[in-house]
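Could you help me review a protein record that somebody else here produced? Do not assume that whoever made the record got everything right. The record follows directly below this note.
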Amino acid sequence: MDFWAILHNRPLEVGLIAWAIAQTIKLPLYFLQHHKWSWAPLLSAGGMPSSHSALMVGTTMGTGLSLGFDSAAFALAVAMTMIVIYDAAGVRREAGRHAEAINILFEELLSGHPVSDKQLREVLGHTPLEVAGGIVLGILVGIASWRFGG
């Protein structure tokens, strides 16, 4: 088995390219929103577009285009993509809301006497718009890869 064959795995390439584009897009969007430059969004979860969605949809599109949309591998990719998108938009989003509420409680109830100066991370998941942005990006990168990538 040739381990280095992974470097020529088109579906994986498409997913990783979609993920990298999604993460990179977050930098100028952060600047436009906050009027300051930060490298933090490049490696953080949350934000527009969802890199989780872009990665999974790009890989799924690559799988369909490579092996066929009627293949078992494509079916599995769709199922996994649905789980990741549900998690990104649902479970992790709610966990972020809980973290936000807990941070407010700490500020209000323990003002002046903090138990810990480390707040919980509030941006864990994605809004439906952020997920949609990642889905569209993944589809476009998948199509562009096969159309122009040879």
